[in-house]
Amino acid sequence: MCRRLNMATAVCARLLLQRSTHGFLFSSRAGPALSSPFLSRAHRLDPSDDEMYQRTSVSVMQKEPGSGAMIYSYSSKGFNIDGNKVLGPCALLPPAILQWNVGTHKDITEESVSLFHMLEPRIEILVLGTGSRTERIDPSVLALLKRKGIAVEVQDTANACATFNFLISERRVVAAGLIPPPVSTALSLKQE
């Protein structure tokens, strides 16, 4: 009996060694667990096998309702926010767009940022656009916002607009204080 059992296991082992190498079955007839043509190494995908290869259509993505204000453009005069033209510096808050009474980065004080930390629900991030260059903000202002639990990102206005739009698209609770960049004379034409 033992001899027959040993002989049967040897035959099974030999059959398995013939049919598999490194764990892959190379037989054209796979067992029930491997009956799918996708699990066979010789099968090639063609357009009828997968949705990914089927004809696709593209639809233009629209702004989702309630996703927040988006900044479409800026100039030395102001901003285009959701089709609204805002002249001069502005504060973008989750529910509103307000004129912001600052002229330069030096005018950003604890009093001028007080409207950002009084909001409910509390904002996570305040993006400050300081004009044509990134400028240093008074450390006491940054310390106040940190105590209130608001992260601050200070950038030039062009990058601040892009950062604000990105954070809004991620549905973050974000606000922005933006100062338009001054008129650039580098690209102006001289009349002769």
From TrEMBL:
<keyword id="KW-0472">Membrane</keyword>
<protein>
    <recommendedName>
        <fullName>NADH dehydrogenase [ubiquinone] 1 alpha subcomplex assembly factor 3</fullName>
    </recommendedName>
</protein>
<dbReference type="GO" id="GO:0005743">
    <property type="term" value="C:mitochondrial inner membrane"/>
</dbReference>
<dbReference type="InterPro" id="IPR007523">
    <property type="entry name" value="NDUFAF3/AAMDC"/>
</dbReference>
<keyword id="KW-0999">Mitochondrion inner membrane</keyword>
<dbReference type="InterPro" id="IPR036748">
    <property type="entry name" value="MTH938-like_sf"/>
</dbReference>
<comment type="similarity">
    <text>Belongs to the NDUFAF3 family.</text>
</comment>
<dbReference type="Pfam" id="PF04430">
    <property type="entry name" value="DUF498"/>
</dbReference>
<dbReference type="GO" id="GO:0032981">
    <property type="term" value="P:mitochondrial respiratory chain complex I assembly"/>
</dbReference>
<dbReference type="GO" id="GO:0005634">
    <property type="term" value="C:nucleus"/>
</dbReference>
<keyword id="KW-0496">Mitochondrion</keyword>
<comment type="function">
    <text>Essential factor for the assembly of mitochondrial NADH:ubiquinone oxidoreductase complex (complex I).</text>
</comment>
<dbReference type="InterPro" id="IPR034095">
    <property type="entry name" value="NDUF3"/>
</dbReference>
<keyword id="KW-0539">Nucleus</keyword>
